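Please complete every field before forwarding. Incomplete forms are returned to the sender.

SECTION A: IDENTIFIERS
Entry label: holo-326
Bound molecule: NAP
Molecule representation: SMILES string

SECTION B: INPUTS
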Amino acid sequence: MTTVLITGPTRGLGRTTTLALAARPGAELILLGRPGRALAEVADEARARGAVVHEIGCDLARLADVRAAATEVRKLIDAEAARPLSALVANAGAMSTDTRIASGDGYELTFAVNYLAHAQLIGDLVGSALLGGSALPGGSALPGGSALPGDRGALAPAARIVLLGSNTYRANFWRKLLGVPEADWRDPLDIARPATGPASPGMKASGVAYSNAKLAILYYAHELQRHVGAAANVVVFEPGWMPGTALGRGAPAPLQTIMRGVGRLPGVSRPERSGPMLAAVAVDPTWARLRDGAFVLKDQVTSVHPVAHDRDRERRLWEATAELLR
Ligand SMILES: NC(=O)c1ccc[n+]([C@@H]2O[C@H](COP(=O)([O-])OP(=O)(O)OC[C@H]3O[C@@H](n4cnc5c(N)ncnc54)[C@H](OP(=O)(O)O)[C@@H]3O)[C@@H](O)[C@H]2O)c1
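SECTION C: PREDICTED COMPLEX
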């Protein structure tokens, strides 16, 4: 019997993960996605597979929406209409093609959706009772929420928090050949600021923004584990390259066509392959001991590059996140 909250269940990896989870006996799912037909459809499909499903409409580009969604989750659990979460899968992701575009709160869109929205959600759902009375960044934003002493939050004991990483945070031979930019870390307040001036040509700036957001997720995972201690297990999942998903929807049309073709090549992953792996990392007993931001590439625990472990950057990101979510 598992209860899993997943963001971005409407397409790509989130959809296949949702359906893989739904097929497990006793599955209960809380689906957090942009309101609309796609959300209703995936919820119906999950129910048809036997799961109990709660849908919550939420645009992750608006922190007010995220806070409202967290309140709804907590109300469901408080009213015993849903069980406490055995796992929270922060899957939703986006790659804005223009780094001048701001989220509803004025932050660079890719950083806002991939990283800040999930930090807010987690801050609102992890109760202060698990943290010795303190709150996570964003946690105090929820009236009656996790800043209150004794608040048990929405997580079941030893819940898994699974964040979505990407190996693009660092370059390798293939990524250099394909022109995928690695992260270019700066102070998080600077990373969160939308670009100004004329549009940058090509996909370089948006690629760097995406890689920075994914490096932030690694830093956050390490710091989050230090704060939640034994109360939850923090893991980062990398699904492998899945070209042709909607993540590249803003790319030039010819490039999207090429990516869809590459996505059919053997050896390259697809949501249909990686989704069941992500579902397993979220709920299977085999993965229960993973914590400390362990990095799982499909079905293998892998070490991250030394750049992804940096106590100073991790501490600074934590502080800056609290400021950005205030
Ligand atoms: N594709 C890859 O090669 C790859 C590799 C490594 C890691 N990843 C990571 O895997 C995760 C899933 O990627 P994917 O390839 O499956 O992408 P995708 O097909 O574009 O799906 C992204 C999901 O996120 C949701 N989303 C985006 N912006 C949102 C917003 N503002 N509010 C609410 N939901 C929003 C989308 O909802 P809508 O349907 O409403 O747009 C969709 O359900 C991401 O975190 C991505 O960074 C992907």
